[in-house]
Amino acid sequence: MSAARRPPDYGPVLAALCSGPRGAAAGVFNPYRQQAAGLDRGGAARRRRRNLEAYLGVVGRPRWLLVGEAPGYRGGRFSGIAFTSERQLLGGPEHRLPWAASPPFAASSRNPALWLEPSGTIVWSALAGRPQGVLLWNAFPWHPAGGGGPLSNRRPESRMVAANLHVLELLLQAVGPVGLLAAGKTAAAALARLGLAATALRHPAHGGATAFRRQLAEQLGRC
């Protein structure tokens, strides 16, 4: 099998995710190693790792890397996958993504309704629910909780992002040449720190859905 067709080796990336962030990272939760009493089911960290591994397998070798900011508590914090919610993996037909219609995807939270993140809904709608060709990731791949406690979000500080760019570097080494798309300023700045030019997209949150969909469609249509 040629290198271009061989599945990427994500082993070093997954190991770095499990190890957690470098440097001072107060208020940061590692979904792939930690569990929170009252919020997580038993074996939650293992479930999230398995979800991510299964998603990477579904994507295959991507042509595009779409980088966001950080996992949100209604999205990757519990699903283990950037821009993806538990309800999109395991909910009813109005939410569930077609590629997640069978195991090994599993819920990790104790929320009986399963979490649903608006940004994830917008991103997957823009992708028409299809994972092939576009890999979703975050510049800071762990969950930075906000002032409202573990079920809140904050923008990761630039120093934390800069101290942990090794994960993004490992990911880029694994996937090889890809088109780079940055959803928001944090993602664009992270890629720029690595000396990489990315097409800037409006982040889908806070009123950016329409612009994000249009910009993403324009870029993917050029492939």
Overview features:
alpha/beta, 6 strands, single chain, Uracil-DNA Glycosylase, subunit E, globular, 9 helices, two-stranded antiparallel sheet, four-stranded parallel beta sheet, 223 residues
Task: Write a brief caption for the model.
With about 220 residues, the chain is an alpha/beta fold. The protein has nine helices and six strands; from the N terminus they run H-E-H-E-H-H-H-E-E-H-H-E-H-E-H.
Strand and helix layout:
Elements: H1 11-19, E1 28-29, H2 44-59, E2 64-68, H3 76-79, H4 86-90, H5 118-126, E3 134-138, E4 143-144, H6 158-163, H7 165-175, E5 179-183, H8 185-193, E6 199-201, H9 209-221
Parallel strand pairs: 2-3, 2-5, 5-6
Antiparallel strand pairs: 1-4
Helix pairs in contact: 1-7, 5-9
Q: Bin the helical content.
A: 25-40%
Helix/strand structural class: alpha/beta
Q: How many strands, what sense, and barrel or not for the largest sheet?
A: 4 strands, parallel
Gyration radius, in Å: 16 Å
How far do the termini sit from each other? 24 Å
Overall average residue pLDDT: 94
What is the domain tally?
1
Fraction of residues in β-strands: 5-15%
> What is the name of the CATH topology?
Uracil-DNA Glycosylase, subunit E
Please list the strands of the largest sheet in the order they lie side by side: 3-2-5-6
CATH superfamily: Uracil-DNA glycosylase-like domain
The low-confidence parts are none
